[in-house]
Amino acid sequence: xxxxxxxxxxxxxxxxxxxxxxxxxxxxxxxxxxxxxxxxxxxxxxxxxxxxxxxxxxxxxxxxxxxxxxxxxxxxxxxxxxxxxxxxxxxxxxxxxxxxxxxxxxxxxxxxxxxxxxxxxxxxxxxxxxxxxxxxxxxxxxxxxxxxxxxxxxxxxxxxxxxxxxxxxxxxxxxxxxxxxxxxxxxxxxxxxxxxxxxxxxxxxxxxxxxxxxxxxxxxxxxxxxxxxxxxxxxxxxxxxxxxxxxxxxxxxxxxxxxxxxxxxxxxxxxxxxxxxxxxxxxxxxxxxxxxxxxxxxxxxxxxxxxxxxxxxxxxxxxxxxxxxxxxxxxxxxxxxxxxxxxxxxxxxxxxxxxxxxxxxxxxxxxxxxx
Length: 371
Ligand code: PHE
Description:
Layout: H1 2-20, E1 23-29, H2 36-55, E2 65-71, H3 76-88, E3 94-96, H4 101-114, E4 118-120, H5 127-130, E5 135-137, H6 142-156, E6 161-167, H7 171-186, E7 190-197, H8 205-212, E8 218-220, H9 225-237, E9 244-246, H10 254-259, E10 266-270, H11 279-292, H12 298-317, H13 322-330, E11 334-336, E12 339-341, E13 353-359, E14 362-369
Parallel strand pairs: 1-2, 1-3, 3-4, 4-5, 6-7, 6-8, 8-9, 9-10
Antiparallel strand pairs: 10-13, 11-12, 13-14
Helix pairs in contact: 2-12, 3-4, 6-7, 12-13
C-alpha cells in the first residue's frame, strides 16, 4: 500500500516537474483596433514558429515553449497594461512584440525595467531599441526606410516637388515623414508641403486641399493602411493623379478593400516580398498558406523571424535568465525568412528593403534596395 502511494507521489512530482519546465514567452500584437490585420498576421507568425520548435523538441533540454499572446489593440496604454500582465502575472521569460512603434515605445521601458528581453518584429521607429539593452528588433529602421522612399521618388519617379501628410499622434508616421523629407532635400528636391493630421481622423480634405495647392508631383503618405486607403481616395477625388509613396504601414490585404482604385500608382517600401524565389521564402510561404489560408504579409514573416531569433537565443543561452538571453541575442547570427540577421551596437539588424507597386489591386514586387 505504502509502495503504491510512493509511486503515485513520484508520478505526480514528475508531471508537475515536466509542466514546470515549459518555457513561457509572451507575444503581443494589435489583433483588434485601427490596424487589426497587423495583429492577426503577427500572432499567426509567432504561433507557427512555436509549433515548429516544439515539434523538434522545444528550446533546450526538451523544454517546450508556450506562447501567451495578448492583444494591445493598437493603443499605447493597453500595450503597457499587457506587457505588465505578461511579466508580472504570467512570468514570461521573454516577449515577442509588439508591432506599432508607438505601442512598442510604451511596452519596451517595462520590459527593460524588469530585465525581460524583447524583440519587436516590426517596429521601425529609431527610438525603440534605444530604450535599453534588453530591447531588440527584427526589422530595419525608419531612417533607412525613409531614405529608400525618397531615393525612389526622386530617382525612379523623377519627382522634384514632394508633399507629405502624416499622423501627428503616431511616432512611426511622423518619424518616417521627417526621414523622407531629410533625404528628399538632400537629393536636391523640394518639399512643398509637410502637413500633419490628428490621430483618428477620417476626413483629410482640408489638409489635402492645402497640399495640392502647392502642386506636388509626388505625395508621401507614411501611414497605416486604413488611413492610406482614405487619404488616397480623397486625394484622387480632389484631382491628384500623381504617384503616392509610403512605407511598410501600407502592407495589408485591407489596403485595396479601403482604397480601391485610388491606391493604383502607389508604391511602398517593405521588408519582404512573397514572390522572392529564395527557397527559405518559398518554403515558408507554402507552410503558412497551408495553415492559415492566406499569403504571409511582412508582418507574419517578421513575427515568425522574430520568434526564431528569440527561440534561438534562448536555446544558445541554455537558460531562462533574462541577462543570459539578452547576451545570447547580442551574438545572433541566423538566416531567417526575411534575410540574414546579426545585430549592430543599437540592437538593430541591417537588412534590405523591397519596393512594392500596387497594380490592378495586387502587390507587385519591383526591386530590392540594399543598405
Ligand atoms: N513599422 C510600423 C511601425 O513601426 C509597423 C508595421 C510594420 C506596419 C510592417 C506594417 C508592416 O509602427
